[in-house]
């Protein structure tokens, strides 16, 4: 059962619960496909170095959950997973634990986020001014006017003319995406999603009971003709599209693609949730006007965040929408929470005040780390095809074989976490790809890649 990886290190609770969860994950990911027969309890206990009672309790739990069945003379078999129909377990165990500063313990190359807040500029926070920054009671459902104005100014400079009234501050981009889909869709609606996609989108749509249909990218770009065909065939009214730097491929759209996409959205009268989270991290520093600035008929809600530019711990994102939609968004937000943290908003405004310098440094740092990761993998695993990113924090790697899930499991045993390509697919595809976040200090990045290479050699039997 090497396919379970370092199962005892993940999760919480007693050992039998962690074993039960590990086998469930293997079944859900397809590593243990339906029909697989498990070893006998005694042999399984021996191979896992646990007591037989631990194995028995774990297997009984899985039988109760409907994942396993036992038949006399046939042993214990996997019968499938009761998870939602949408494929792709997107939150891998342990990926958000982070990495120790010295690279000891498990190294996280799975979560596509800055490792720490080092990218933040020095910001002096005036406590007296902080208390006066918003209403005395401290609740700001729309967000601090000063931060909303700063976001509107950045959007305007980036080609999307915006006013304070068109901006809503959120608790990160994921919060904004959740608000958008809560407002714009109903349970069981069909949503068009570019494929591969941001892994968090899969969990979000599944949690809301929405059905996704993938729009495969063509040569890294959005397939405009495919979009037209899918919308017409399935009567789709809502789409989620990444139009800046694409996660996970790291590719960017050209100006003509933005024009063609905006024209198609207008002609189809399509409502679009436009993901601009990585817009500030194109390595060449360019920033074409988003489709929200180019459409005339289509409704576009743009989503952004300071998490990738600065630090995820601030939990500050934003939404930009037409005034008539914004009023509905604020009302929807009030049903869940009453506003974002004022201290975080004040710090975020300080980051935007130094935007040009912060963006320049981040772009240069990410480009350097991307090159280092590419060169290292080219030397150590030449059989892999690594997509050279044009922006963002991650590499999209073609393994050349459908081994992404087994590699993720083995890599965990070697002390490094990675994201399987399946986690970025609404269609359950890309089991031959992995996503690697290279936004780590160079010594940590190199050690993580060394461990990953060792895991690959172990999995494939290479010397």
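Sequence proposed for the structure above (463 residues):
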């Amino acid at each position: 059962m090497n396919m379970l990886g370092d199962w005892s290190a993940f999760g919480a609770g007693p050992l039998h619960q962690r074993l039960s969860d590990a086998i469930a994950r293997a079944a859900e990911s397809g590593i243990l496909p339906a029909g697989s027969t498990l070893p006998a309890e005694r042999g399984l206990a021996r191979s896992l170095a646990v007591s037989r009672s631990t194995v028995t309790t774990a297997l009984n739990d899985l039988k109760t959950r409907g994942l396993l069945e036992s038949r006399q003379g046939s042993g214990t078999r996997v019968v499938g997973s009761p998870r939602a129909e949408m494929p792709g377990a997107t939150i891998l165990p342990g990926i958000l634990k982070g990495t120790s500063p010295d690279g000891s313990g498990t190294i996280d190359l799975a979560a596509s986020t800055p490792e720490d807040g080092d990218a933040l500029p020095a910001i002096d926070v005036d406590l007296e001014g902080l208390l006066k920054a918003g209403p005395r009671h401290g609740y700001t459902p729309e967000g601090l006017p000063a931060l909303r104005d700063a976001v509107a100014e950045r959007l305007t400079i980036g080609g999307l003319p915006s006013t304070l009234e068109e901006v809503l501050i959120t608790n990160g981009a994921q919060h904004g995406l959740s608000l958008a889909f809560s407002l714009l869709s109903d349970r069981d609606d069909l949503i068009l999603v570019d494929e591969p996609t941001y892994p968090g989108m899969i969990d979000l749509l599944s949690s809301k009971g929405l059905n996704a249909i993938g729009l495969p990218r063509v040569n890294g770009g959005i397939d405009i003709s495919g979009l037209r065909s899918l919308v017409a065939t399935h009567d789709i009214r809502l789409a989620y599209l990444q139009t800046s730097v694409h996660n996970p491929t790291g590719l960017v759209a050209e100006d003509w693609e933005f024009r063609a996409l905006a024209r198609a959205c207008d002609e189809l009268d399509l409502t679009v949730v436009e993901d601009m989270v990585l817009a500030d991290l194109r390595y060449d520093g360019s920033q074409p006007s988003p489709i929200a600035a180019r459409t005339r008929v289509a409704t576009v809600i743009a989503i952004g965040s300071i998490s990738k530019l600065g630090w995820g711990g601030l939990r500050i994102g934003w939404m930009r929408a037409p005034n008539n939609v914004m009023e509905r968004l604020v009302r929807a937000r009030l049903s869940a929470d009453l506003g974002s943290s004022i201290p975080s908003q004040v710090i975020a405004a300080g980051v935007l005040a130094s935007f040009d310098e912060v963006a320049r440094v981040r772009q240069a740092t990410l480009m350097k780390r991307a090159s280092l990761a590419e060169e290292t993998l080219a030397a150590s695993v030449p059989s892999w095809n690594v997509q050279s990113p044009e922006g963002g924090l991650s590499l999209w790697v073609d393994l050349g074989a459908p081994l992404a899930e087994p590699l993720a499991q083995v890599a965990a045993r070697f002390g490094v976490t990675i994201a399987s390509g399946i986690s970025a697919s609404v269609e359950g595809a890309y089991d031959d790809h992995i996503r690697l976040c290279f936004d780590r200090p160079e010594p940590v990045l190199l050690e993580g890649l060394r461990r990953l290479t060792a895991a690959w050699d172990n999995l494939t039997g290479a010397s």
